[in-house]
């Protein structure tokens, strides 16, 4: 079975008698019965019911339906329901500020906003009336004056599934927003399903999903990665799909133990937060044969911890690098042997090679866009048929990042002799005297107490290192030893995890962190391609 029409995806899985069992760490926000166990036929029914709600609220072909709620996989169920009635779902993270949500909703001009009373109240507290921006607002969890509640729409029958052309807008997802207001990225059926999800729906030896797998996903379900994942994972029909919505290891642990994963996908931040669980003798990762990471690099000590925790003979860590606009551009595989060979903690900034037959990468001079020779750092340009259709409300910004058939990733990197790509920094975050990302890897490898290290660059000063630890403290003797052979750095700032501003995917908001610590936001990079 291959993914195609997201509006009837769950129906087709039920018709093909895909036997996948779904387990949740908490009930869906759209499920009145509050179940934590589902079959695919039951989920198909839930999607049809949700399509009836959206239709009753006035959503129809061509309309935009904005979805803002707590993190859960029912983001994708609601998106499939919107697709079913012919609308274009726009999945927005509730992690965003009220002001940012207001900006994105104004760009979208949605016919319908599906949200919660908490999101609306937080928006009002922060000075933004989110409900006023949409034509109609549907509140999932209560009664709010001027909006529809579930009692107003429940029980309505959905119309027949709407079919759209493969090149028409299918879904809108926002970028992570590490440098400011996120961009709204429009994908079509051809780009996100035909080029990305279908590519993942191949049973490749060793790394392909198997029917006996227990697939665990601990992700940020408002983002495009999980919409694509939903299509490919369901069509592959693993025995179990287990969904984790939290980054709290104490809350995730019971779910992981009840259904120990054989394949694990998670946010980089979730891997860090769950890492203490790998140290237990009966750790829940003992059956893992494959780990999948996207969104951001995972530092070498964390990769080692999970591969070491597995009792599988040869577990594999598959690291994908890409962007919301393009999907995966490169893949790299880590094994116990490869991370053991990586010297002094370096190793996960090598992104691997472009996806065969799917993507091409070019390293160019930032000013002239002329190709650079092997080993020389420059802007990374990508060419892929999976590139999105554009940005909502920011056409000029989109055009500025297109160079003929090439897409400007905004990343600085270099091509190695073997054809692999070495990632050095985001262009906007770069420093002239070092690679911030490589330095972070080295510091994490040398500071066992560090959960995360962040190196912030600003003009006219040495880079500022931030060390994230459990107690917000760093041992000075250990620090001096860790930086003994590195370019000059300022004295470190030690913070706890919750003191660091983050996106909904757990990425550090570097400019906001720099402003909190120094009162300044200036960078070496131009920021032209953020």
From TrEMBL:
Would you tell me the protein name for this molecule?
Acyl-coenzyme A synthetase/AMP-(Fatty) acid ligase
**InterPro entries, per the entry:** AMP-binding_CS (IPR020845), AMP-dep_synth/lig_dom (IPR000873), ANL_N_sf (IPR042099), ATP-dep_AMP-bd_enzyme (IPR050237)
Stored Pfam families: AMP-binding
Q: Which GO terms describe its molecular function?
A: ligase activity
Signal sequence interval, chain numbering: none
**Species classification:** Bacteria, Bacillati, Actinomycetota, Actinomycetes, Kitasatosporales
Q: Which domain of life is it from?
A: Bacteria
- Domain AMP-dependent synthetase/ligase stretches: 25-391
Q: Which UniProt keywords apply?
A: Ligase
């Amino acid at each position: 079975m291959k993914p195609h029409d997201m509006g009837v995806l769950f129906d087709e899985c039920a018709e093909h008698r895909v036997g996948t069992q779904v387990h949740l760490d908490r009930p869906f926000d759209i499920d009145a019965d509050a179940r934590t166990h589902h079959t695919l036929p039951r989920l198909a029914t839930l999607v049809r019911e949700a399509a009836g709600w959206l239709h009753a609220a006035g959503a129809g072909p061509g309309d935009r339906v904005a979805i803002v709620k707590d993190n859960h996989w029912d983001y994708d169920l609601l998106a499939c329901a919107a697709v079913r009635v012919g609308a274009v779902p726009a999945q927005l993270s509730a992690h965003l500020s009220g002001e940012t949500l207001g900006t994105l909703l104004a760009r979208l001009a949605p016919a319908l906003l599906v949200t919660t009373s908490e999101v609306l109240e937080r928006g009002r507290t922060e000075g933004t009336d989110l409900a006023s921006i949409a034509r109609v607002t549907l509140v999932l969890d209560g009664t709010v004056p001027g909006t529809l509640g579930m009692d107003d729409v429940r029980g309505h029958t959905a119309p027949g599934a709407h079919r759209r052309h493969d090149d028409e807008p299918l879904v809108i997802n926002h970028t992570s927003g590490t440098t400011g207001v996120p961009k709204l990225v429009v994908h079509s059926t051809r780009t996100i399903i035909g080029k990305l999800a279908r590519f993942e729906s191949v049973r490749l030896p060793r790394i392909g999903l198997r029917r006996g797998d227990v697939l665990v996903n601990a992700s940020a379900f408002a983002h495009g990665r999980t919409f694509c994942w939903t299509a490919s994972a369901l069509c592959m029909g693993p025995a179990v799909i287990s969904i984790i919505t939290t980054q709290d290891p104490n809350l995730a642990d019971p779910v992981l133990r009840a259904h120990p994963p054989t394949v694990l996908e998670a946010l980089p931040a979730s891997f860090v937060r769950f890492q203490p669980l790998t140290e237990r003798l009966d750790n829940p990762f003992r059956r893992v044969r494959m780990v999948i990471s996207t969104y951001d690099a995972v530092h070498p000590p964390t990769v080692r911890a999970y591969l070491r925790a597995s009792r599988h003979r040869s577990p594999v860590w598959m690291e994908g690098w890409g962007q919301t606009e393009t999907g995966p551009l490169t893949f790299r595989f880590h094994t116990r042997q490869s991370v053991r060979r990586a010297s002094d903690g370096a190793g996960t900034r090598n992104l691997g090679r472009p996806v065969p037959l799917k993507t091409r990468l070019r390293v160019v001079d930032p000013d002239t866009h002329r190709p650079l020779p092997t080993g020389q750092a420059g802007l990374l340009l990508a060419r892929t048929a999976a590139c999105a259709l554009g940005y909502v409300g920011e056409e000029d910004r989109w055009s500025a990042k297109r160079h003929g058939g090439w897409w400007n990733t905004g990343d600085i990197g270099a091509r190695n002799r073997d054809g692999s790509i070495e990632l050095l920094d985001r262009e906007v975050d770069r420093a002239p005297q070092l690679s911030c990302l490589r330095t972070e890897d080295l510091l994490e490898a040398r500071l066992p107490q560090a959960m995360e290290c962040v190196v912030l660059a600003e003009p006219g000063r040495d880079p500022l290192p931030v060390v994230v630890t459990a107690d917000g403290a760093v041992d000075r003797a250990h620090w001096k030893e860790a930086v003994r052979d590195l370019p000059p750095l300022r004295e470190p700032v030690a913070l706890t995890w919750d003191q660091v501003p983050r996106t909904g995917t757990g990425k550090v908001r570097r400019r906001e962190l720099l402003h909190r610590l120094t009162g300044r936001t200036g960078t070496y990079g131009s920021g032209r391609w953020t």
